[in-house]
């Protein structure tokens, strides 16, 4: 899917007329991607088995203006299938090591939404099954790294009755996007229960668990980009520890905030670009193992002058564990602390349809336990695009 966007961008950069570029985009644009990961714990606790994971992405983007005459209207359908092992069962981390690992294998309808332009200023409304992390709490420079926290912070990813509307299960949502000069405002209202076709029970239309409200404002263009966001669930979840006089769990707010910034470090037009990023988030510590965390890293492309499609990225993510989590781990005989992971990854396009990406992650205090030995996980990712 990524090569389609690059090809289109290159055509525009070379001065191709806008009308001609638009003609090259079909009314129905189909794309597919198959990811195969081989993951193994190299050192630390856990077995040394090689675990294979697969992730199949199939997307369709429809121009409804050309198909059915609805001007300024688009639709997007995204089906995914996930199979294979769970390397984090061996690695034993709080935040995971592979962003295509899922708790339950299966075929799912991940996204199915319609987007409509509002006026002529670039504003739009999107409604349907929607991946929150496709736009919120996301930045391009972190996209090459494989560890899940580089997609969305763990302090938000761990919330909700069964997780928020992120990979691999989505929920019904409405998203408003409004550009404001060189900046933007983005607001989302999402069903708190993520459940879609392929999950047990299918799409949840009841909204009985309330809503996730999220908003962010920022700047997406220029050499320095970033955003700040806030989120809150309308229905307070049960506290993981505290109870009332009758013994029933107390309900505590589930809310938080985050900030993302990334910037280009090399002069504009340089043959090699280096982009650095920093992300941080905080959340109410009563309902998840996390009080907050941060991620930082750099992306360099090309990594090798002789390999124009090569990229290399170095990143670190750190989780601040909550007092409730620490009390529970201490009661089990553990020595609670935080968890830190450093990841180094390299990717290269071997053929127009095949990319190879070796990856290594060093895990300090896995599981948030100071007494757990540091671990190392190795992953080899193959990505086939069509």
TrEMBL record:
<comment type="similarity">
    <text>Belongs to the OprB family.</text>
</comment>
<protein>
    <submittedName>
        <fullName>Porin</fullName>
    </submittedName>
</protein>
<dbReference type="InterPro" id="IPR052932">
    <property type="entry name" value="OprB_Porin"/>
</dbReference>
<dbReference type="GO" id="GO:0008643">
    <property type="term" value="P:carbohydrate transport"/>
</dbReference>
<keyword id="KW-0732">Signal</keyword>
<dbReference type="GO" id="GO:0016020">
    <property type="term" value="C:membrane"/>
</dbReference>
<dbReference type="InterPro" id="IPR038673">
    <property type="entry name" value="OprB_sf"/>
</dbReference>
<dbReference type="InterPro" id="IPR007049">
    <property type="entry name" value="Carb-sel_porin_OprB"/>
</dbReference>
<dbReference type="Pfam" id="PF04966">
    <property type="entry name" value="OprB"/>
</dbReference>
<feature type="signal peptide">
    <location>
        <begin position="1"/>
        <end position="21"/>
    </location>
</feature>
<dbReference type="GO" id="GO:0015288">
    <property type="term" value="F:porin activity"/>
</dbReference>
